[in-house]
Amino acid sequence: MFRLQKALWLTALVGGLAVAGSPHANAFIDLSIPGFSAVLPDPFRITFDENGNGSYVQNGLPTVHPVAGTVILDPTAGIGGNPKPVLAYALPEPVVAGTVLIPEPGGGTGDAIRFTDATGRLTGVTDPATTIMIYYSELPELGEIADLADSGFPDNLTAGNLVTGPTEVGPEGNNGFTYRPGAPYPANNEYIGISDATITVPEPTSLILLLSGLAAMGLAGRRRARKTV
Fold this sequence. Notes:
The chain has helices at residues 2-21, 204-228, and strands at residues 44-49, 53-58, 65-68, 70-73, 85-90, 98-103, 109-116, 132-137, 162-164, 176-179, 190-194. It is of the alpha+beta class.
C-alpha cells in the first residue's frame, strides 16, 4: 500500500513538473491578457519608440539586446481586409495575443500595441517563431512629420482580446507609457513605449513670413556694412 501511494505521488509530481515546464501551460498563463508571458519563468522587458528603435532585457539579466522595428504589411487585416504598412517589433518569446489601447490624458486613444504573429492571431498564444508587437499611433496632423508608427488604427482595432492599458504620461509630443500585463518585471513581461518629440514643418504662410524676415535682416546688414565703409 505504501509503495502504491509513493508511486502515485511520484507520478503526480512528475506530471506537475511537466505542466509547469510547458510553454503553453494554461495554469500559469492568463489567456485574456494581451502580452502576458507564455514562457514562464522567462519574461522580458522591452523599450521601444515610434521610429523602430528598441531594446530588451530578459529573465532579470543585465544584458541589453537591441531590437529594430521594421515596417511590414499588417498580418491582422484578415481575409478580404486592406493591410496597411505598420511598425512591428519581433519579440523574443511567445505571448498572449490581443490588443492594448493606450488612452491620452485628455481622453481618446492615442496609441495601441497589438501582440500577434505571422498568421494574424488575436487570441490564444502566438507562434514562437513569428511573435511580433505592432505599434499603432494616430495619423499625423497637418504640418507634422510622420513617425513610422503613425499609420492610424486598423479597422478591426477592437477584435480579439482587447484591454485598455495605462494612460500616456508627459507633455503632448514627448510622452510615453508602461504596460504591465501581469506582475512587474522580472516576474512577467513589461512594455515601455516612447513617443518621440513632435517636429513640425512650417505652413506656407509662416514660411513666407520667415523668408521675408530673413531677407529684411540681410538687407539691413548690407546697409550697415555700407555705412561703416
